[in-house]
Automatic annotation (TrEMBL):
Residues 1-61 form the TGS domain. Transmembrane segments: none annotated. Its main location: cytoplasm. This is Threonine--tRNA ligase. Its EC number is 6.1.1.3. Residues 257-528 form the Aminoacyl-transfer RNA synthetases class-II family profile domain. PANTHER family: THREONINE--TRNA LIGASE, CHLOROPLASTIC_MITOCHONDRIAL 2, THREONINE-TRNA LIGASE. It comes from the Bacteria.
Length: 638
RNA sequence: GCCGGCGUAGCUCAGUCGGUAGAGCAGCUGAUUCGUAAUCAGCAGGCCAGCGGUUCGAAUCCGCUCGCCGGCUCCA
């Protein structure tokens, strides 16, 4: 008699050792049909495994995230099987599940997306065949024999411990695999191949070039459809696309990886920085600016010449080596070090919107997200050890305030001391405890990445979440125990002795270029009023009303509202359409009605029109929304 | 940097088998003067990314260079 305990505490009894499937079926046929695997006494395994003794079983179904992961791994096998049917000489390597689906690295001739239809058709056949997926266990030497003609599998086998090796078989296909897998190929219901690229065996450029084919799979066609719709939405929101359409910025071959900002892009840029300065002044920061071209001796002192040189642009001027700054900190160190500081002056919060250049590899450039020249909203805070906690807390609160203004949620991650690091245990202890104490007082949950800190100190990274649920690391707060040392910074303490200040680097937008790009995608180009490049579009009903329209626009401009008159001799419909496509948040039409009554007719981007709004109250409302930085325009009656 | 794909008008794209460049939108001109998502007509706009080669002839085929896009961490 075998007793199986279920998660609800219920016990099922069996005369013979049952398989997982038997147990599932004893619950109900319908339930069993949706099971993909089981967890027996904490061990994840296939449903067809026999349970030899008493144990606790939990089933993984098509509803569980783990179930999806297992099925995607099976999908990778189905894809590999299909590819082998079409390319019999292909050699398989590895095929894991990743966040965005699955891939398989295969040694085969280059495949492109044109080949996907054939591979997918073959996969579809395999799915329809509902081939049972069976686990087999063989001794290692037997596995070595089976795979004698498969160089990659042999190499993997050699890395595995001796003993039994599991092989999964479905029809004419088998693959070395840890498992588990879904019971049969029919579970792979909704799938699509997404992209193909080159990848190296073991990510090593000196090794063979493989073809990596990516796919995505779901249990339900609806989920696949939703996923594809998400990708389409992200494509539509792509900041490069919107940046071109709305005339915000561009890139040119003459300066690869360095953005040109157009007048409309600069309107947003300046609004971002105006706001940033407002909050930083309020938080007790002063603003500085350091040169972008500095001599080699500075970079030697900071350590960048030794450690960061491949990424730096250098020049020889009057036979002296210079480098364009890839970071603002060394300049900031010079500023702090140029005079004596009393403990009474600390903390010094010195902000700098600094333009830095980094020579990134050409292949990693990506719109505004990854550039070679960008501005950091940097700040260096110099303080005493007991100021660590309040200062970090102050940064976290500032971060919270600023991100909230954009409607961006975020989470925090703490990175601790890496294997290779400078500083004493005591210093790391003080530093890390200071960060933790600040995090505790701030009160949000955070993730800890052990050993992920910089060599010169621990850090807190801030990851924002945009309107599509994608996360981006923007802000970071890093403690630095190296630079104050290298620049021999000091302050005079209450004891009249020299002391080394604690220093942090922190950014909130991070790269302003990148943050700009994220905002474009987050808002899909439809910026809140305070950020919109053109806040009000004034549309005269006909050419005779153009002077009136201009007078309205002039009035708004005087109040500091960014306004544009559509002076074209086009139909009103056309002007409205173009204003909508240009995402102008307030569209004002000027006809005789408005001219005679001193009112305004306002159309917002949701298509709603309010007529007869008194000009004075409209102006007040607009200024109020701008100064409150509302995410959506509010207070308009009618 | 490496692998794959791509590069044609300001933008989006067509261009067959190698035969000498095309559309829509935007722009300009003229007509129209319109009440909330495209009025009509005309005009202009190109070293087909660059350089070299094959050819009687190259946007098209080949090579190199530059740039852009996707991928290059996920480990049976």
């Amino acid at each position: 008699m075998i007793n199986i305990t279920l998660p609800d505490g219920g016990i099922k009894q069996f005369d013979q050792p049952p398989t997982g499937l038997d147990v599932a079926q004893s619950i109900s046929e319908g339930f069993a049909r949706n099971c993909v695997a089981m967890v027996l006494d904490e061990r994840l395994m296939d449903l067809d495994r026999t349970i030899d003794g008493d144990g606790a079983v939990r089933f993984i179904t098509t509803k569980d995230p783990e179930g999806l992961e297992i099925m995607r791994h099976s999908a990778a096998h189905v894809m590999a099987q299909a590819i082998l049917r079409l390319y019999p000489d292909a050699k398989l390597t590895i095929g894991p599940v990743v966040e965005e689906g699955f891939y398989y690295d295969i040694d085969m001739p280059p495949v492109s997306e044109e080949d996907f239809a054939r591979i997918e058709a073959e996969m579809k056949k395999i799915v329809q065949e509902k081939l049972p997926i069976r686990r087999e266990e063989v001794a290692k030497d037997e596995a070595l024999r089976i795979y004698r003609d498969e160089p990659y599998k042999l190499e993997m086998l050699k890395d595995l411990a001796d003993g039994t090796i599991s092989i999964y078989r479905q029809g004419d296909f088998f693959d070395l695999c840890r498992g588990p897998h879904v019971p049969h190929t029919g579970f792979v219901k909704a799938f699509k191949l997404m992209k193909a690229s080159g990848a190296y065996w073991r990510a090593d450029q000196t090794k063979a070039q493989l073809q990596r084919v990516y796919g995505i799979a779901f249990f339900d066609k609806k989920d696949l459809k939703a996923h594809l719709a998400f990708i389409e939405e992200a494509r539509k929101r792509n900041h490069r696309r919107i940046g071109t359409a709305l005339d915000l910025f561009s890139f040119r071959d003459e300066a690869p990886g360095m953005a040109f900002f157009h007048p409309k892009g600069m309107a947003i840029w300046n609004a971002l920085l105006d706001y940033w300065r407002l909050e930083h002044r309020a938080a007790g920061y002063v603003e500085t600016k350091t040169p972008i071209l500095l001599q080699r001796k500075l970079w030697e002192r900071s350590g960048h010449w030794e450690n960061y040189r491949e990424n730096m642009y250098t020049a020889v001027i009057d036979e002296i080596d210079y480098a364009i700054k890839p970071m603002n900190c060394p300049g900031g160190m010079l500023l702090f070090g140029r005079k004596h500081h009393s403990y009474r002056d600390l903390p010094v919060r010195a902000a700098e919107v600094g333009l830095v250049h980094r020579h990134e590899l050409s292949g990693v450039l990506n719109g505004l997200f990854r550039v070679r020249a960008f501005h950091q909203d940097d700040a260096h805070i110099f303080m005493t050890p007991d100021q660590i906690q309040p200062e970090i807390l102050g940064v976290l609160r500032l971060v919270d305030k600023i991100y909230s203004t954009f409607g961006l949620g975020f989470h925090l991650e703490l990175s601790t001391r890496p294997a290779k690091s400078i500083g004493t245990d005591a210093q790391w202890e003080t530093a890390t405890e200071g960060l933790k104490a600040a995090l505790a007082e701030y009160g949000a949950d955070y993730k800890v990445n052990e050993g992920d800190g910089a060599f010169y100190g621990p850090k807190i990274d801030i990851h924002i979440k945009d309107a599509l649920g994608r996360t981006w690391q923007c802000g970071t707060v890093q403690l630095d125990m190296s630079l104050p040392e290298r620049f021999d910074l000091s302050y005079i303490g209450a004891d009249n002795e020299r002391h080394r200040p604690i220093m942090i680097h922190r950014v909130i937008y991070g790269s302003i270029e990148r943050f700009f790009g994220i905002l474009v995608e987050h808002f899909a180009g439809q910026f809140p009023l305070w950020l919109a490049p053109v806040q009000a579009g004034v549309l005269p009903l006909n050419d005779d009303l153009l002077p009136f329209a201009r007078s309205v626009a002039e009035r708004l401009e005087t109040l500091g509202i960014r306004t544009e008159v559509d002076h074209r001799s086009e139909s009103l419909n056309k002007k409205v359409r173009d204003a909508q496509l240009n995402k102008i948040p307030l569209i004002l039409t000027c006809g005789n009605k408005e001219k005679e009554s001193g009112t305004i007719s306002v159309r917002t981007l949701d298509g709603q029109v309010r007529q007869g709004v008194p000009m004075a109250s409209f102006e007040q409302l607009v200024l109020d929304n701008i100064s409150r930085r509302t995410l959506s325009f509010d207070g308009l009656q009618g």
